[in-house]
């Protein structure tokens, strides 16, 4: 018996969201009186694996097979299922991500496990196993009981604030069976912005909308983002118009984010936009129209012209 | 090519969510139901593929009779026929079981879904169905072309995208910009009335989850306005008051 946590690697390092999942999983293990095993797939350094222990794992399973270096949802699901069986784990925890979401769905099918996506709190074990999950893209929450023996919890960013200790966890090599049938989808090309902060992982996000007038004006958005070490995002029309790449589009039909800080520049605040960002901790709105609906959902607001305000904010950040 | 498109009937994206029955039910009064926006993308691409390459498009919904207007709209957009599994869709595994049962009976080349429902945001039905059928599932798909029995796919990843190739059959969770949303025209609406909508009874009854109650998010506090000429103050407040930078 153990809580199994899927710890995702990104360029050889455990993702920040996965460290949060490890910490969350260790708390669930405490609640259920068991241990927390972190599962790491693909090649990763000893230093990276040690992090899992510092964030609460009591054991680390490491499958270092190079075939697992590339995130492959089908193969990962098989491997996680095998690890869950080996560990007798009935509870599997993971942080939502493009890869983990696809993996978790396959895993739910394999294990006939109840999967709760967008979990935002620790489970409530007083009478059944209940989790609170965000539904309607953050417009409501559903208290959901997981009635199956096997349970998968996909947690949303900022569900818990992890604490790092100097604890260590033994690393055990894990050699799962890899099936060729899990490698039938061929990756022919990958295009990925390098060096940028990944939007779903970012603590701080600077986002801009049609108020920026054109792609040539994005420099002022990027400058503020760079000064803050923030990721950049945009509204749907901006990606529809190809001013910005689609993976920056947030909202109902785009990426859903929950950073500590979301700064919206020249975005009106349509309900479909809000849906993707309303679980941010702090929202700042900069819009020249005092009547823009976004101000109703903001914590701080500036009625002003982005072309004047943004460069001044960047300067103020640099002077901090 | 035989394509199955799975669609949800969900509250319009502009709906303000309210609760009834002691917070155990969503209040449906006055709510406009629409096809899930991601399902709409899936359907639009399916119809485009049919127009280019021939074949059939079947729409499938697991839901009660009140979902039929949404199903008819899908027929008006260009699907050839529809199946409704007559059941309250109360759990993703249950829904997946129904879809897999229909798929086993009719062997489709492509099963297209939305990347996620916009009501429960599970993002899991495509993966579970793929697993049940023993075929690959891929999501979120932003581009799809079919060449013979091979699918060429672009999938969104964090910070970019990847190009994939896989043989049919496949289950795909779709998102923009896979196709332009299609709007039904008058002729489509007329012909949709006579297209076949088959109602079948559910195949299994396994549910693995159960919603006990709902909650609404707490309202945000009042917005603190900062005069534009003192914009720099914001940065100080974010550090000392909000403590986020
Ligand atoms: C089914 C559906 C799904 C959708 N999904 C999404 C989604 O996922 N994400 C999303 O974003 N939208 C989505 N939309 C679209 C949404 O309804 C809005 O149309 C969109 O969010 C508006 O984008 P915007 O705020 O950038 O542009 P606009 O609404 O045009 O707003 C521009 C704003 O910039 C301000 N402005 C202009 N110039 C300046 C300046 N110099 N300085 C400061 N402010 C300035 C204006 O006052 C205005 O408020 C969806 C719509 C539908 C129907
Ligand atoms: C009255 C009521 C009670 C409910 N109670 C519960 C509950 O107790 N526990 C719980 O987990 N959920 C409950 N639900 C939610 C419901 O079960 C969801 O439809 C189901 O869980 C799938 O949602 P998802 O967000 O996981 O789908 P996703 O995996 O996000 O959907 C992905 C895609 O799968 C396809 N799809 C999803 N659902 C259907 C469908 N019904 N028909 C055809 N295609 C579909 C669509 O293409 C969709 O875009 C309830 C719903 C209703 C109406």
From TrEMBL, chain A:
<dbReference type="InterPro" id="IPR014731">
    <property type="entry name" value="ETF_asu_C"/>
</dbReference>
<feature type="binding site">
    <location>
        <position position="287"/>
    </location>
    <ligand>
        <name>FAD</name>
    </ligand>
</feature>
<feature type="binding site">
    <location>
        <position position="210"/>
    </location>
    <ligand>
        <name>FAD</name>
    </ligand>
</feature>
<dbReference type="GO" id="GO:0050660">
    <property type="term" value="F:flavin adenine dinucleotide binding"/>
</dbReference>
<keyword id="KW-0285">Flavoprotein</keyword>
<dbReference type="InterPro" id="IPR014729">
    <property type="entry name" value="Rossmann-like_a/b/a_fold"/>
</dbReference>
<keyword id="KW-0249">Electron transport</keyword>
<dbReference type="InterPro" id="IPR001308">
    <property type="entry name" value="ETF_a/FixB"/>
</dbReference>
<dbReference type="GO" id="GO:0033539">
    <property type="term" value="P:fatty acid beta-oxidation using acyl-CoA dehydrogenase"/>
</dbReference>
<feature type="binding site">
    <location>
        <begin position="266"/>
        <end position="273"/>
    </location>
    <ligand>
        <name>FAD</name>
    </ligand>
</feature>
<dbReference type="InterPro" id="IPR029035">
    <property type="entry name" value="DHS-like_NAD/FAD-binding_dom"/>
</dbReference>
<dbReference type="Pfam" id="PF01012">
    <property type="entry name" value="ETF"/>
</dbReference>
<dbReference type="Pfam" id="PF00766">
    <property type="entry name" value="ETF_alpha"/>
</dbReference>
<protein>
    <submittedName>
        <fullName>Electron transfer flavoprotein subunit alpha/FixB family protein</fullName>
    </submittedName>
</protein>
<comment type="similarity">
    <text>Belongs to the ETF alpha-subunit/FixB family.</text>
</comment>
<feature type="domain" description="Electron transfer flavoprotein alpha/beta-subunit N-terminal">
    <location>
        <begin position="3"/>
        <end position="187"/>
    </location>
</feature>
<keyword id="KW-0813">Transport</keyword>
<dbReference type="GO" id="GO:0009055">
    <property type="term" value="F:electron transfer activity"/>
</dbReference>
<dbReference type="InterPro" id="IPR014730">
    <property type="entry name" value="ETF_a/b_N"/>
</dbReference>
<keyword id="KW-0274">FAD</keyword>
UniProtKB/TrEMBL annotation, chain B:
<dbReference type="Pfam" id="PF01012">
    <property type="entry name" value="ETF"/>
</dbReference>
<dbReference type="GO" id="GO:0009055">
    <property type="term" value="F:electron transfer activity"/>
</dbReference>
<dbReference type="InterPro" id="IPR033948">
    <property type="entry name" value="ETF_beta_N"/>
</dbReference>
<dbReference type="InterPro" id="IPR012255">
    <property type="entry name" value="ETF_b"/>
</dbReference>
<dbReference type="GO" id="GO:0005829">
    <property type="term" value="C:cytosol"/>
</dbReference>
<comment type="similarity">
    <text>Belongs to the ETF beta-subunit/FixA family.</text>
</comment>
<protein>
    <recommendedName>
        <fullName>Electron transfer flavoprotein subunit beta</fullName>
    </recommendedName>
</protein>
<keyword id="KW-0813">Transport</keyword>
<dbReference type="InterPro" id="IPR014730">
    <property type="entry name" value="ETF_a/b_N"/>
</dbReference>
<dbReference type="InterPro" id="IPR014729">
    <property type="entry name" value="Rossmann-like_a/b/a_fold"/>
</dbReference>
<keyword id="KW-0249">Electron transport</keyword>
<feature type="domain" description="Electron transfer flavoprotein alpha/beta-subunit N-terminal">
    <location>
        <begin position="23"/>
        <end position="207"/>
    </location>
</feature>
